[in-house]
């Protein structure tokens, strides 16, 4: 049994002397789908450039032993993916022979044990912090500190875990991608967590305006750089239109990402002219809105079964569903606007809908009942990052116009806000919230109802 990261010798030899003239040696790994070139020997020299990427710089012949009939192969820093059956083929003039070697039963190395311990520690710390936050009564300051530990601690531990995994397994692309994910994830968690309201000043402004976008853009840059390098190294077998389209899509995706990164940096530079910032703002808005759809198209086109005739259709379809993940349908309510006993409209909330410019989070959809189906009447959004439309409720007439009204909750805006929309016979609701109610936005404290500002 061998340990991970150790060197392994795969034996292949003959008893008699073989002249080196016209001698060819090939080591192949037999996978289920294809045979992988591990190392070749031709014209009295090894050809490491013929090896697939994962074996380059990790395999070598015992060159001095080849004239003696020893064609064994040294495999350095053995990894999990190295397990399998290897075939040695030898050709010398009209003579040929082959043998196989099996590599299995790899044991754990010290680095792999450390990786396992760190994974357990990261999971345990997340569960422990969760219990301390939600299962025990603590002061607000203590809860805030525990939430910060919950955001940063498990992710930083997993970051270190994949650094060690990269050292032990040597998979650069996998390690870089996973390290980037766990290093940048706290930016998204800060933006999404309720504790964002406990920050003040520039920190709160930065988290609300930049953290989510920075996490998405920089992570996309890392992932697609890794994919581009992988596709380039493996020389994917695309020809003609497919090869051209994959190159164009990779370039466009990386260019859009670069534009948005430049725009984010320009927002910190005040000496530039207004028209330059305006141009980059427009380009960045287009980039941020188009990138999700374009990324799906690139992955589907490069690794799926798309052909030229399907390209336009897939683009339009994916652009249409670019708001997927908005939790459409998380909240529902029926509205009998004229109070005649029959429901007239269906209200559907999508609290995780996101739009960068203007910055809005959450959307309310209003559908009218017809004889055979639903007809969408309007969409309503507010300039808030508080999970707008997370809750919906139909209300009795509030303003004396004999039409039912609607309350829409945004639980993470400030300390919780309720928007009131007055009824409308045609659209269901007035798309503008009632100003006399909005300026008295309702703050609800669930732990201490007596402090609520709800009008009595």
UniProtKB/TrEMBL annotation:
UniProt FG-GAP repeat ranges: 314-376, 377-430
Membrane topology: Single-pass type I membrane protein
GO cellular component: external side of plasma membrane; integrin complex
Principal location class: membrane
GO biological process: cell adhesion mediated by integrin; cell-cell adhesion; cell-matrix adhesion; integrin-mediated signaling pathway; regulation of leukocyte cell-cell adhesion; regulation of T cell activation
Gene3D superfamilies for the chain: Immunoglobulins (2.60.40.10), Integrin alpha, N-terminal (2.130.10.130)
Family membership noted in the UniProt record: Belongs to the integrin alpha chain family.
Name assigned to this protein: Selection and upkeep of intraepithelial T-cells 2-like protein
Species of provenance: Labeo rohita (Indian major carp)
